[in-house]
Amino acid sequence: MRVKLPADAPWREKELKLGFRPSDLPLLEASALILPASHDGEPGAEVHQLEAVYFDTPEFALADEGIELRIRREAGSGWLQTIKLRQGGLRSGMFDRLEHERALSDPGPKLTGLPKDPGFDLLRCNRVRRRLQPVFATRVERRIYHLAGEAGGEIELAIDVGRLSAGRRTAPLCEVELEAKGATPANLFRLAEALSESVDLRPEIRGKADLGYALLRRTVPGPEKSESVSVRWETAREDVFAAILENAFRQTRGNERAILETGDPEAVHQMRVALRRLRACLSVFRKQLPAGTVEPVRESLRGILDVLGPARDWEVFVADRLGSAKLLAGHDPLFGSIVTIAEKERSKAWTQLRKLLASREYSRTILRLTGWITCRRWREEMNRKELRQFRGPVGKMAVKSLEKGHRRLCRAGGDLVFGDDDSWHELRIAIKRQRYFLDSFRSCFPAKAVGRYAGALEALQDALGGLQDLATGKELLAKLGRGRPEPLQAFLGGFSAGQAGERAFLRESVLEQWSEFAELKRPWHDCR
Description:
The structure is a single chain. By secondary structure, this protein is of the alpha+beta class. It has 3 domains: 2-217, Beta Barrel (Hypothetical Protein Pfu-838710-001), CATH 2.40.320; 223-388, CHAD domain (Alpha solenoid); 394-528, CHAD domain, CATH 1.40.20. The chain has 16 helices and 10 strands. The protein has helices at residues 25-33, 61-64, 126-130, 185-195, 208-217, 237-262, 265-285, 294-329, 333-357, 360-374, 384-390, 395-414, 421-441, 447-481, 486-497, 500-518, and strands at residues 2-4, 11-19, 46-56, 67-74, 79-90, 95-104, 133-148, 154-166, 169-181, 202-203. An 8-stranded antiparallel barrel has the order 2-6-5-4-3-7-8-9. Helix 7 runs antiparallel to helix 8 and helix 9 (333-357) crosses helix 15 (486-497).
């Protein structure tokens, strides 16, 4: 969707990008052909051969400022220069960028007469202009279908198949772009979901320029941690809800890439954190939303977490628990057998995780969640009164949620039984939830008080995390021993019993930290 801004301003481009497998191209084309064409469009595809060159300085000054400079030529036509500013960037699923286009008579950049928007200031710098050079190129065959949207609008469906080249390195391109022309973003997602009934489509979080720079720089995706969300006392509840969801979902998708492309164990942990933050957000705001709206989303997250959990548990067990025990066990053959069996279990859990993340079922889940968040589909089931309340200031609600979470913490801390793993686990869950709540609302309260409270929660969570790893390790050791020869079972039993001292030490540490935490002033205490 392109929206013209005031005079002497660029266009604002909003589009949905979807990835697909090359083998699915015939099926995708067949699906596009049976969709209703727009009133002005002809059934079938317009086929274009497109070549594009992207420009930047040797040190990638444009990329670092979120600027894309591209000159594209269609076979038999002239050149078109396009500049995109990623000011809006990618939210949870839509590319939202300022765009300025200019027809050229030759393939060199022409940077005069730029819009007055400050985002273009870098391109006005002579030093930058003089140092621009081609950095990578794309060559694609584009099939364009003009489809009928809702309420008389039009949707342009473009299928790009080709290659991206950066020096001697190349990569395939298979991408669907959905652009609304008079239609709404919700129309785009409905169309994408309809297409996904027959083709495996997944929302892309990187455009062609992102892929080009990654290929050029040989960027390897790594674990992505959560980003802070800026919240004020008077910020609308719905805006806070949407911002937290988008933030957590962006973290989820980034770590999904790292798991599939590099197998980084930390990405599994960070993806679990992201999904748990998303789930905690749904819990905080569930009373603001229509009954039955939250549970289908929670159910989708539960299925993903159920596969992430074993991969993370076996990774920690093999790398940390068995890794540290190896110093004591040395070359004991029984211990070597345990390591071999555990590594097989870890490999099996990772295989299941990769299988899930690469599956069509997962793609469809991600597409539905992306549309739900991006288009704020919860509104479809809300009446005017509910919407008005949801748009009220978040401050008092933040205090109420944190106070409720704190009371839950105190109950869990009071119910601790020294030898009962479940009671310590309940306290850990309550602390994690409170940290997620606090991270969401922390900018509403005094920074120093929030820092002390958050620091104490983090220390408690770390110690309780160690306890949980030991409890999980105990369960995994029991699983490893089932059906094994008696000498191996006895060795495993002794190994498990040897960790009892470490559990007792950690529990004593938690009790001391809990005493200090109980004396802390709650950051929101004076804001009620």
